[in-house]
Amino acid sequence: MEEPAAVTVTGYPARALMPFVQRYHGARFEDLAPCVHRGLPSHQLEFIICLGQPLMINSSGGLLARPYAGLVGGLHRRPVNVALHGSMRNVSLELTPRGARKLLGVPAAELAGQFVDLDALLGKGAAELTERLASATDWAACWSVLDDSLSSLASRASDRIREDADAQHTWHRILASGGTVRIGDLATESGYSHRQLRDKFLREYGLSPKQAARIVRFERSAELVKTLGRTKHHPMAPTPSLSEIAAWCGYYDQAHMTRDWNDLAGCPPSEWLRSENLPFVQDSDGGSGPS
């Protein structure tokens, strides 16, 4: 049977790694027509290892894209364009800010708004990890390699490399609320002034609490908007409207959500749906198939 044009697979780290990494992803593209994927802002850092040709990433909004064989992308407030074509294979991790400290030895703030070559963060370990992943026979074997390599990094980390406790509490309150918590309430809870809490949060994450809340709320809306793209091929599936998505995510109205999309994604959700046309024909958990 003919192989699908594109495959994406999701895996999960070992329990001890879950505070640092939320999920693993594998992607394989075959004979992909040239296209541009728009990477959206997220509350997670992106850790990517290319097992074939490098990714061409344009994070500046200019005309030139830079190749990366492996990278970590910090927390961003703007979309990132990734050029894709031909046959490509990569593995990525959803890295938490706590994971940036524990596994990479740097706070998320040092990586905010940047893409950093993996070898600049891991040294020769970057090449060793890439080689082990390239030799894995299937996606499940890739997850095992990641578990082993990341556990080794965690075991060597200093216990002194810890997040600011007040900033961490504020971060988790923002996540738990879906980005709808009032920033003034967070300052009151912390016992700090609005400015003091903002400064502590910026030092840890490279974002203000308000910026982080905006990204988390946007990210919730993006996950729901993606369901519109998945259901357009299945007319009988229930489909929420953009106004319903705006209400569910805590926006005042659809126009409010659209303004956030224009700022954070560079376009309204309807345009993103039209332009995001990667041919994902398989998207599954697990990973027993070939990598």
UniProtKB/TrEMBL annotation:
Q: Does the keyword DNA-binding apply?
A: yes
**HTH araC/xylS-type domain boundaries:** 155-275
Its keywords, alphabetically, are: DNA-binding, Transcription, Transcription regulation
State the coiled-coil residue ranges: none
Against SUPFAM superfamilies, the record matches this protein to: Homeodomain-like
Domain of life of the native organism: Bacteria
Q: Which SMART domains match?
A: HTH_ARAC
Pfam families (alphabetical): DUF6597 (PF20240), HTH_18 (PF12833)
Any one Gene Ontology MF annotation carried by this entry is:
DNA-binding transcription factor activity
Q: Which InterPro entries does the entry mention?
A: AraC_XylS_family_regulators, DUF6597, Homeodomain-like_sf, HTH_AraC
Could you tell me what this protein is called? AraC-like DNA-binding protein
